[in-house]
Write a structure and sequence with these properties.
2,3-Dihydroxybiphenyl 1,2-Dioxygenase, domain 1; 2 domains; 8-stranded mixed barrel; 8-stranded mixed beta sheet; Glyas_Bleomycin-R_OHBP_Dase; VOC family protein
């Protein structure tokens, strides 16, 4: 069981647009290269705690529907796509999933070539028949090949919360309890209706309370709909990040990044 987010994937049709949007709100992505499928490429926004935001899109000339990773999400410009936990042994993690009654796709070997020519290699495994559950990863090459050591923005600390949209919050919570031994959901005031956190975990759940989330689930299925990055102080973060209005997150403050691509999809939350 791992309760720390390794990285999250934020997908769309054009990597240039995703990178431009990130730069405009104060995040600095580094181009990470093309995956070994030849159908997707990515950029990394690293955070000081070692987690990172992956911006991912089809390569030039590739139809999104033919992408090796998350074709439905990329074709829909869906933004939040998937989330990942690092594990010491992907095969052992896959066995634990099977023992918990969760089907798996993997383990698989994967790689991408960085612009400097260095090959990054890892093992990965996808779990479940939807994207509510995280996939797992273990590096075959040193982790700093995959994740740049430096973060360009010291106002943020790292990824803190994955918000999963689901039509049945209790069923999804039960799935996480069975697979990852996550705690029971606790209702709080937050950025979505029917919103709850699972204390001690990086997970929050919401059910559709408006047409936007309903339409999202119809289009891409249940799974991540938003990612939150931790900051020590929201007012200080505004000095270097472009953020929208303040929102309550239980007894803390949060805000969405002030860009159409990130609104209600990518935000910051004050650390407790």
């Amino acid at each position: 069981m791992d309760r720390t987010i390794d990285h999250v994937a934020f997908g769309g049709m054009e990597l240039y647009e995703l990178r431009t949007a990130a730069n405009e709100v104060g995040l600095t992505p580094t181009y990470g290269g093309e995956h070994n499928t030849g159908t997707t490429h990515m950029a990394v926004v690293p955070f000081p705690d070692g987690s990172y935001l992956e911006l991912i899109a089809p390569t030039l000339g590739t139809d999104a529907e033919d992408s090796g990773f998350w074709p439905t999400h990329l074709a829909a410009d869906a933004g939040p796509t998937a989330w990942c936990l690092e594990v010491p042994d992907v095969a052992a993690s896959a066995k634990a999933a099977i023992d918990a009654g969760v089907p798996v796709d993997g383990p698989h070997e994967a790689a991408r070539a960085r612009p400097d020519g260095r090959l990054v290699e890892w093992d990965m495994c996808f779990e479940g028949d939807d994207l509510r559950l995280p996939f797992t990863i273990h590096d075959r090459t040193p982790r700093d090949y995959r994740v740049p050591r430096t973060s360009h923005n010291t106002a943020v600390r790292g990824l803190r919360t994955v918000v999963v949209a689901t039509r049945d919050r209790e069923a999804t919570a039960s799935l996480f309890a069975r697979r990852h031994r996550y705690s029971s959901p606790v209702d709080i005031n937050g950025p979505f209706t029917n919103f709850a956190v699972l204390p001690g975990t990086p997970l929050a759940l919401c059910e559709p309370g408006d047409g936007e989330l309903d339409a999202r689930i119809d289009e891409v299925g249940e799974g991540p709909c938003a990612f939150l990055v931790g900051v020590t102080d929201l007012d200080r973060a505004r000095q270097s990040l472009s953020l929208g209005p303040e929102i309550r997150f239980s007894d803390r403050r949060m805000a969405w990044f002030d860009h159409d691509l990130f609104d209600r999809r990518l935000g910051v939350v004050e650390l407790p």
